[in-house]
Amino acid sequence: MPEQSHESSILDLFRDAAATVPAYADFLRERDVDPDRVTEVAGIPLMTKADYHQRYPLPERCRDGWMATADIVAVSSGSSGSPTVWPRTIRDEQAVTARFEQVFRDTFRAAERSTLAVVCFALGNWVGGMYTVAACRHLAEAGYPVTVAAPGNDVDEILRVVGELGAHYDQVVLLGYPPFIKNVVDAGVARGVDWPALHVRAVLAGEVFSEAWRDLVAARTGMDDPVTSIASLYGTADAGVLGNETPLSVRIRRFLASRPDLAAELFQDTRLPTLVQFDPADRFFELAPDGTLAFSADGTVPLVRYHIADEGGVLSHAELTAFCLSHGFDPGPGPALPFVYVFGRSLFTVSFFGANVHPENVTVGLERPDVSEWTTGRFVIRTLETPDRDRTLSVIVELAPGADPTTERRDAAAAAIRTELIRVNSEFGHYVPEAQQTPSVELRPTDDPEFFPRGVKHRYTRP
User: Fold this and answer.
1) What is the pTM of this model?
2) 352-444: which CATH number, 3.40.190.100, 3.40.250.10, 1.10.530.10, 3.30.300.30?
3) Chain-wide mean pLDDT for the chain?
């Protein structure tokens, strides 16, 4: 679909939402925007979770102010760590199912291979598990030989399902957050699971991972080709799956991983982002004025130029393939869809086993009486990768002047942070395995130049 058609589609969505969604009509009135006078997408104001979703009651954000048209609700943890509810219908799931279909059909060849899809996301109202189950069942309904098992994020139950059923299928697809899927793989290796015999594939979401990580998981499961065996999704609770890796995007990302100089030139960052393709007919991405991402998507709660503030950018198919060719790499065939690359919201949160860990969650741990008397309240949250490609949650804590960095204090801070994370962040308690819930804490002196320099606005998260 040409760019002009996408612009027209967004304008149609904008006018429909303005006429039928009470909250959106008020949102536009407050900004003196007359829908009849808007003739181009640039004239539509950006909406954010803070100035739109958190300001208006949920029914008012639905068409005709009527929420009962929704079939189901999903819950996510927003930028403040408080739950956000997103209603949806089966119609909303169609665009998401198309992204799963592209992965299963074009990457895993599931139209010609019987497939056991093992959903390893947490089950319940959280968006990942139930959305994935629904999408995979829609594939089965469409005629794909796909059987869905939903053990959730219980390693013992996952391995029981895989051991009992896996051999009856041509391939087994594990769907979950990257570090958790690696935990499952490692636990299976320790228990003697013959992963290569099961022809394992993986669908991942929620976190950026390295190409070395992809190679490691592929090697431990006996995957014949990492490019066509592991696919990552870019999704959000707001609108489900927004884009997905294809063999084309993976080949390009692996090339860029081998040439960090070119990656830095292309992405204007030393980090290697997730790189996926998206269908602008369903989810249209654009770059907001501050250099972060916005998208438009229809749904039970229509989103028009919704500013999700993920760090990243948009590249056309022609632009990115030409860049590769100009540097001596032919990326080969693939869908002629645009690309979106995503670093995530590193200024605000870190993602750990798919759970958003917010600075506010850690603050309450350090405010406990047994910890606050020898800390300043400043800290830095990171996720780190071990030599074995496991992920750990790292918290650098600033000590109060004159306080000593004892082992007892380090352990007390770690325990307090874990306790409060579980208490205030439902995602953390349900997504992160118990063995990984206690963070690795490092105590640093006051005004430590690396993490707490004087005279600089403090950043509570780092990539």
Assistant:
1) 0.83
2) 3.30.300.30
3) 91
